[in-house]
Structure formats: structure tokens, C-alpha cells
Amino acid sequence: MDTFSSACCYQTQQTEEPWCADQGWYHCLQCTTERKTEGLKLIRALAAHHAEILLPKLHDICLAVIKEVRNLRSVVCRAAMTTLAHLYAHLQKKMDQEVESTARVLLHKAGESHHFIKEDVEVALSMMVHNCSPGRVLRGLLAGGLSHRNAAVKRCTALHLEKLAHLLGASRVLTAKKEFTCRFLTAVSKLALDPAQEVRLHAQNTLRFLGSHEACVKMMDRFVPLRDKTAIKGILSKTR
Question: Is the pTM above the cut of 0.85?
């Protein structure tokens, strides 16, 4: 059983009045904390059982959920992150257009000190990695975390780039379209040389994973910045 299905807070009951729920979530999000969590629960129910109702207004729904991810009340914030996880899991590639904005807000929450917030961020981003288009996922991760000043945010970015690499496999990463391979290798190389050990760990793991493929050295020579090549080749040499 994966992390998502084993998390009891992600269980959603089917709503018997989907059209009422479609109207209700918006009104709930304008109200008190308790009502906000009820509104987010309605969105999760619609995503699981009546996705066709959500899709025409998906952008507006994601903007509303993003707003609640930023809510200072942790109960609302966590419910909103759970809701994004549901949207990724149930709508899958239909969430592609919303990946960049939703990934950005999730990654920024990874910089908070509360352990349970970090866990919710990682579960939601894992759902994104496993269910949305790889190109969109890469773009979202890089836009939200690659150049962030907070080491915890960059660590979370590196972790999910590692997950994406393992999901796709080394061959697909290294032989994909030029833009994808270039952006992926440039980003992972930068993170592999980050001052923070927790960031370097996941990025270097990714490089070692890719290093087992015969095309890796050639792609590194092609895409890794000249100033970083010697250090990156040193990391790759440990895989051989």
C-alpha cells in the first residue's frame, strides 16, 4: 500500500448530491475554519467521484485551494495540501496546466519547521510526480524550488527530482527531448553541488542512478556547465 492510500486522512466519501457540492465548496471557503475544511472535503469528493463537474472550473478551484495552503491555520493548510494530493491523484494529467502554480506553493511550505507540514508537502508532491506529465512536473519543481534560498525547499526539490528519475528510468531521462534532458541534468548538477548536505544527498543519488546508463557521460558533457563538469564527473566515477 502506497503513502497516499495508507494515509487515513485522504479517505473521501462519495457525495450523493454532486451539484450541491459543486456550489457548496465555494461558499464554505468564504467562511470559518471549520467550514473551510468542509469545503475542501467537498472538492476532494468531487475529484474522486465527479471529476467532470470540477474540470470546467479547475483553474479557479486550484487558485482557491492554493489560497488555503497559505492559510495560517494549520488545520486548513493541511486540508488544502491533502486536497491538492487528491486533485493530482484523481485528475492526473488534467492537472498539468495547474502543476507549476500548485507545486510552487507546496515547495514553499516545505521550508516551514513543522514536521507534519513537511510530510503533507511530500505526499502531495509525490502524487504530482506519479500522476502528472513529466515535463510539467519538472517545470513545476524547478520553478518552485531550484533557486530558492531555503535549504529545506531545495532538499524537497532534489528529493522529488530523484523520485521522477526513478519513475521514468535512466534511459528515458537521458534520451528524452533535448529541453527536458538539458533542464533535468542542469538542475540536478546544480543541486548536487549545493552547500547544504541534505540537498546534495538526493541530487547526487540521482546522478549515480543516471550514471549506470551508457549515455550518461555523453549527456553530461553536452549539458552540464563547464565550471561544474569536473566535480560532477567525480560523483559519477563513484558509480563505476
Answer: yes
Question: What is the C-alpha separation between 186 and 170, in angstroms, rounded?
Answer: 15
The model's confidence at residue 88, banded by pLDDT at 50, 70 and 90, is very high
Q: Is 92 left (phi over 0), alpha (psi -120 to 50) or beta?
A: left
Which residues lie below 8 Å from residue 49, measured CB to CB, with a gap of 6+? 12, 14, 15, 18
Measure the CA–CA gap between 60 and 54, rounded to whole angstroms: 10
Name every residue whose Cβ is closer than 8 Å to that of residue 138 and which is 6 or more positions away in sequence. Answer: 161, 164, 180, 183, 184, 187
Every domain of the chain and the residues it spans: 8-98, 164-240
Q: How far is CA 96 from CA 62, 84, 235, in A?
A: 12, 12, 33
User: By the 8 A CB rule, do 196 and 155 touch?
Assistant: yes
Closest CA to 7 of 106, 86, 70: 86
Q: How far apart are the first and last CA of the chain?
A: 34
143: its cell numbers: 520553478
Distances in Å between the alpha carbon of 91 and those of 67, 97, 115, 121, 217?
20, 11, 28, 18, 37
C-alpha torsion sign, points 124, 125, 130, 135: positive
Tell me the pLDDT tens digit for each residue of 173-203: 999 999 999 999 999 999 999 999 999 999 9
Please answer whether residues 30 and 67 qualify as being in contact, where contact means their C-beta atoms are separated by less than 8 angstroms: no
Let me know: does 55 contact 91? Beta carbons within 8 Å. yes
